[in-house]
Design brief:
The structure is a single chain. By secondary structure, the protein is an alpha/beta fold. The chain is 19% helix and 34% strand. A hairpin with an 8-residue loop joins strand 7 and strand 8. About 16% of the residues have low confidence.
Length: 219
C-alpha cells in the first residue's frame, strides 16, 4: 500500500494532536474545596462531581482535611471548584487567590449579602445555586482589549511584579438572581483607591507604585 500523500497526512496529524490534547486534559485532576461540619476539605478529582454532593465527592475524589490557615489564598493553575454555604467561608477560601478557571456552587438556601469577592487572574467563571435548581448554570468568559484572548494574559510570578495586577471583583448578590452574568473591565488603572474611592473592597488591595492594574467587575 502506498504511503499517504502530504495532503492525506495532514488530517491524520491534526486528528492525532487533537486526541492527544483530549487525553492530556482527561488526565488533569481538578481541585474541589468545600467546608462541611466545621471542616475544610481539599479534594483532587479526576471527574466532575455533581454540585454539593458531599458524599459522592468523598467516593470519587481524593479528599483530605486541611486547617483554615492552609486554605488561605494561594494559586491554582487548573480548574478550581468551591462549594459554599456562606460568604465568610467563601472569603476565607478564595479572596485574592489566583485562579484561572473557577466554578462557585452555592449549597445553601439563604440569600447572600451585598459583598464582593476578589479573584486574581480570572479567565472563566461559572456559578450555580444547587437550592435553586433547575436554574441553569451561568458562566462568563473574560476578555481584555488589544486583541488578547483570555489565555494570553501576562503571568505575574516574576520577582518585583505585583501579585495581583489583574483582579476581578464578584458581586455575590448574583447568586440571588437568575439573570446572565455580566462583566466590565477597566484597563491601565494607575491607582485603585484613587480611581474607586468609594469601593470599600479595594481598601484591602495591595498597591505598588508605578504599577498599572486591570480591574474587572462581575455582576
Amino acid at each position: 500500500m502506498a504511503p499517504p500523500s502530504g495532503h492525506g497526512l495532514l488530517p491524520i496529524l491534526v486528528l492525532g494532536a487533537w486526541a492527544l490534547d483530549r487525553f492530556s486534559r482527561a488526565q488533569e485532576n481538578s481541585t474541589l474545596i468545600f467546608s462541611k461540619e466545621n471542616t475544610i476539605r481539599n479534594c483532587s478529582c479526576s471527574a466532575d462531581v455533581r454540585d454539593c454532593a458531599y458524599s459522592l465527592a468523598h467516593l470519587v475524589c481524593s479528599c483530605k482535611a486541611v486547617l483554615p490557615s492552609a486554605a488561605e489564598p494561594r494559586s491554582y493553575a487548573g480548574h478550581l471548584a468551591i462549594w459554599f454555604t456562606d460568604t465568610a467561608a467563601l472569603g476565607l477560601l478564595l479572596n485574592f487567590t489566583r485562579v484561572r478557571d473557577l466554578k462557585l456552587s452555592l449549597c445553601g438556601t439563604d440569600p447572600l449579602p451585598a459583598e464582593h469577592l476578589a479573584v486574581c487572574g480570572l479567565q472563566r467563571l461559572r456559578v450555580s445555586a444547587e437550592a435553586k435548581r433547575p436554574a441553569p448554570e451561568r458562566s462568563v468568559l473574560l476578555h481584555r482589549g488589544g486583541g488578547r484572548g483570555p489565555r494570553e494574559r501576562p503571568e505575574l510570578s516574576h520577582a518585583g511584579r505585583h501579585p495581583c495586577p489583574d483582579v476581578s471583583f464578584l458581586d455575590l448578590t448574583l447568586f440571588n438572581r437568575a439573570s446572565s452574568l455580566k462583566s466590565y473591565s477597566i484597563e491601565n488603572v494607575a491607582g485603585t483607591t484613587t480611581n474607586f474611592p468609594n469601593f470599600s473592597p479595594l481598601k484591602h488591595f495591595p498597591v505598588l507604585s508605578n504599577d498599572s492594574y486591570v480591574v474587572t467587575f462581575i455582576y
